[in-house]
Task: inverse folding
């Protein structure tokens, strides 16, 4: 496993982060989830990402149990706050001081730890003054409940405003967690340049486009049984935008490129995002422990310039690049 600094800090994370969205507490049984965490540890992954909203807090509980007994100082544990949790009442979501302060205590209890290494604003809250949000994060850092602060799916302008406030308040905003893969490149035009300027790294989710870039979905054919595209609990909804024949045809053009590079298609997809120097880590999930080793093998892979050009030629105009899509990922109003 290779490691990279997160933002302009001395804090290192593994190039592959194990994430438990859509799996722990929902898709897979707890014993299998624990096996997946063990498999991640066995291949050198030390960074684990979750969120209180995943499976309405159950994912944090499962991760906390799975990591119990491990040396805490050897792990990097990330979680997030924003989405609705509990009974989903009027103050059970967003980035108000009330919700943030109550949420960090709940997350620490479920994760069975005194602190998280990185606490992230899961989305931007248009209904709470940014000063209130950042002051709450500053207090959490001072209380020792989080070592660093990050965000997820923030625009370049939001990152600049948040970073300026964090400096005034005396803590470090060091990361952003956006969706990023060969098919979804909306951060490249604005978010990445702003992040490089500010000393903020990307921890990217969905590097395999919900599994589409694995090549297992074929144009004109039904999705394989048991795949995410057949998951009625949420996976199918997330992947449907890419289940088009033109996209699936383009993805199949990646197969000979991967073979020539000596990689599986999932490895090629994860390695591709790690070629961006502003990306510190790629988040991968698993519903079976044997999937972990394949993803972890992407760490340290160097793709030559001609391989990157071949990938661009294969995907072409299929990739979404509109930077406005980043702002659209944060809800204009709260759900409650």
Result:
């Amino acid at each position: 496993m290779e490691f990279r600094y997160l933002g302009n800090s001395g804090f290192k994370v593994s190039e592959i982060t194990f994430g438990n969205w859509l799996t722990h507490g929902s898709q897979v049984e707890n014993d299998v989830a624990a096996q997946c965490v063990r498999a991640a540890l066995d291949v050198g992954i030390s960074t684990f990402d979750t969120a209180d909203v995943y499976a309405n807090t159950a994912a944090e509980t499962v991760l906390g149990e799975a990591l119990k007994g491990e040396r805490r100082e050897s792990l990097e544990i990330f979680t997030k706050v924003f989405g609705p949790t509990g009974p989903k009442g009027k103050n059970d979501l967003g980035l108000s001081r009330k919700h943030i302060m109550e949420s960090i205590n709940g997350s620490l209890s479920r994760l069975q730890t005194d602190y998280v290494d990185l606490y992230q604003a899961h989305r931007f809250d248009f209904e709470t003054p940014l000063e209130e949000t950042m002051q709450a994060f500053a207090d959490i850092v001072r209380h020792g409940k989080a070592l660093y602060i990050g965000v997820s799916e923030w625009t370049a302008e939001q990152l600049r405003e948040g970073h300026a406030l964090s400096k005034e308040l005396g803590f470090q905003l060091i990361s952003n967690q956006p969706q990023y893969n060969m098919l979804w490149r909306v951060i490249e035009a604005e978010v990445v340049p702003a992040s490089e300027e500010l000393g903020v790294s990307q921890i990217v989710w969905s590097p395999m486009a919900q599994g589409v870039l694995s090549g297992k979905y074929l144009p004109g054919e039904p999705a394989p049984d048991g795949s995410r595209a057949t998951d009625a609990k949420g996976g199918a909804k997330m992947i449907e935008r890419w289940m088009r024949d033109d996209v699936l045809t383009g993805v199949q053009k990646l197969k000979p490129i991967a073979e020539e590079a000596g990689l599986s298609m999932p490895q090629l997809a994860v390695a591709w995002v790690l070629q961006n120097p502003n990306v510190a880590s790629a988040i991968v999930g698993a519903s079976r422990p044997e999937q972990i080793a394949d993803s972890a093998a992407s760490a340290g892979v160097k793709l030559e310039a001609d391989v990157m050009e071949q990938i661009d030629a294969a995907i072409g105009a299929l990739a979404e690049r509109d930077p406005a899509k980043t702002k659209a990922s944060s809800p204009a109003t709260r759900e409650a």
Notes: The radius of gyration is 19 Å. The mean pLDDT is 90. The beta strands are 3-5, 12-14, 16-19, 47-49, 76-81, 116-121, 146-151, 173-176, 201-204, 279-284. The CA atoms of residues 193 and 303 lie 22 Å apart.
